[in-house]
Amino acid sequence: MKTVRLFWGLLLILFTLGSASLLAEEVKVEAEAPPQEKKENLLPGVALSQGITEITGVAISPLLGVSTVGAWHYWNAPSAARGSLPWYCQPWAWGTGLAVLALCFLKDSLGTAVPGVLKKPFDMVELFENKASALVASGAFVPLVANQMAAQLKAEHPEGLAVPAGDILGGTLAFIDLSWIMVPAAVIAFLLVWVCSHAINVLIILSPFSTVDAMLKLARTALLALVGVVYAFAPWIAAALCLAIIALAAFLAPAAMRLAIFGARYASDILMPWRGRKRATPETPHAFTLGRLAGLPPRTGGRLILLEDGTPAFRYRRWCVLDERIIPMPDGLRHVEKGILSPTLIHQPSPEEEGRTLLIFLPRYRGHEASIAGTLKLHGTRDHAIVRGFSAVRAWLGEMLRRGKKPLEGT
């Protein structure tokens, strides 16, 4: 519970610092600008450093970022101008976002008092909420901030905002507006940071411990708070920090994207089991790599198939759309292990050696373990250690409850 309180305390600090720093920046701009150049409805983020910070902060937590910026701009705009503000600055938009955040606070506060498994369906709903918020922010918020950044640069350096293109395009177009470059670059930077932040949501639904969930969210919120605190004292240092975060996100993006795809399919099978059961194909089941299989990175998606010579193999496409490749399963014992949420493929080089998990199947194949093992000529099925523990407890309770009853005939 203390961890959750710390998490939401940092969230409140972020709200306060972000609003205060944005307000201070706006007042400073208005104080220095001539009267004829003042604008009542400037969006937050007109400065280059502020725009970079906003895009990075919103990418880390889209719903929180958009709701905060919208609420700040609404309350600091004149009453007569509030009706002409962008959609996300209207009370129905940021009010809905804050209400959803309040529900997330309630879920996380109560989640520490219940087993993590009982909280997972709500975490999976939050996973899809994060995707929807990112979709809206990348299409309707980030381009506005990028355009304001371009407009600011144009106002300060009108001669340097355009790139001569007459020689390249044969004179048909004299200049290329820098906003044509800044908007796609801003959207790409947003998506790179968001997909890495979204990986935390996937790790939360995979973790069986509520404390680990709270620590993951605390780490993400601490990063948000760091960006806000640094910006409050030194905007350009905050911009440099955000550029470093974007560069690191670009390096981690491929692994984060694989994790995001895996998390989306895994969560959709649990939240909509009827849909998964209709699409289950035990003869060629969907699977994701967990360990290094012939050099493949973890969470590579594909199917387990049976080759003509009777060898099970993993079939996948590079980058999901490129050429198809097939990797035979290593020799040894191959069992399908029954898990609590989904089965896995266990490989043992020999009976004396310890097995390791190679593949994890989607939850839709829970209950199809025997069919998968038989169709793909594996070496049978076995129970997960937790399932075996539950079975042992159930058998022990059965033995205890049978004591005192009339003995069976012949005993």
Task: Describe the overall structure.
Residues 1-24 form the signal peptide. Keywords: Membrane, Signal, Transmembrane, Transmembrane helix. The protein folds into two domains: 2-271, no CATH class; 286-394, Roll (PH-domain like). It is an alpha+beta fold and 411 residues long. It has an eight-stranded mixed sheet with strand order 6-5-4-3-9-8-7-10. Strands 1-2 form a two-stranded antiparallel sheet. The protein has helices spanning 2-32, 48-60, 62-76, 91-111, 116-156, 179-206, 210-233, 235-271, 273-278, 369-375, 385-402; strands at residues 162-164, 175-177, 286-289, 301-306, 312-317, 324-328, 333-338, 344-348, 356-361, 381-383. The chain is elongated. The protein is 59% helix and 11% strand.
Structure class:
alpha+beta
Q: Provide the residue-averaged pLDDT.
A: 76
Name the beta content range.
5-15%
Proportion in helices: 55-70%
Rounded to an integer in angstroms, the radius of gyration calculated over CA atoms is 27 Å
Q: List the total number of helices.
A: 11
Q: Please provide the count of β strands.
A: 10
